[in-house]
Amino acid sequence: MENTKISRWATAVLVVGSIIGTSWLTSRRNRKKSSEVAPVFEGELDANLTTPANATFPVMWSSIYAGTLGLAVHQALPSQVNNERYEKASPWLVANYVLNAVYGSLFSHGEKSARVAANVVTIAQLPTVLGLHQALEVGKTEVDEPEKTFQRTVGLYAGWTTVASGLAVTNLLIEAGYRVGHKQAEPYAVGALSILGGIGLAVSKKLNDPYYLLPFVAGFTGVAAKQYGRNDLVAGVAGALALTVAGLFAQRIQEAKTDVTEQGNDAVVAQAALDEMAEEPYYIDLD
C-alpha cells in the first residue's frame, strides 16, 4: 500500500515536471533565445500543407495539459489508491510524459537530426496514449467525476496524438527529400487529410469515444484557416472534413445521452416492478 502511494506521487511529480519543462522549452521566449531555431523548425512545418494554423497547437495543448495535470494529481490521492484503472494507467502515463520531455528537448533545437527525431518521438507517443486510454477504460466503464472528465481529456489526447502522428509522417517524408511545389503538393495533402479523417472515424468508433474526434475537428479547421487564400483546394477539403467530423461528434454525443436516458428509464421501470412485488401479498399453494 505504501509503495503504491509513493509510486503514484512519483508519477504525478514526473508528469508535472515534464509539462513544465516542455512548456518552457517550447515557449516563444526560449525560442527567441535560441537564435534561428524556431524559424527553421516552423519553415519545415509550413512546407507541409497538412499543418494546422499555429493557434491550433496552444489551444489543444492547454486543454490536454490541464486535464492531464488533474489526472496526475487525482490518481495520487489516498482515496484513489485502490482504483485499479489508475494502477493500470500509471506506467502508460510515465512512459508518455518521458517521451513528452524528450520531444520538448528536441524541439528546442533546429538541426535536421533534431527535427527528424522529434517527429519519430511524436509517433512513438501514440501507442502510449492509446495504452493510457485503454487502461482508464474510456468508453467502457462509467465512472464518477472528476475521473469522467479525465477520461474525456485522455480521449482528446489520443485524438490529438493521432493527428500529430499523421503530421509527423508527412514531415518525415519531406525531411527525406520528397519535396514538390505547393500546387503539385495539393493532391497529396488532400489524400493525406482524407486518410487521416477516415482513420479518426474508424478509431473513434472502435474506442467508443466521441471526444477522440474533437482534435480532428480542430486540426482540420486549423488547416482550412491556414491554407485559405493560399491553396483553396486543400482549404476546402479540410473545411469539409472539419464539418463532417463535427457533425458525427454531435451525433455520437446525442446517441450517448439517449442511451443513458434509456438505461435510466429501464432502471426506474425495474425498480417499480420490484416495489410492486414487495407490496403485493403472495401465497404458497401446499396442495
TrEMBL record:
It comes from the Bacteria. The keyword Cell division does not apply. Signal peptide: none annotated. Keywords: Membrane, Transmembrane, Transmembrane helix. The chain crosses the membrane at residues 6-25, 154-174, 186-204, 211-227, 233-250. This is Tryptophan-rich sensory protein. It comes from Fibrella rubiginis.
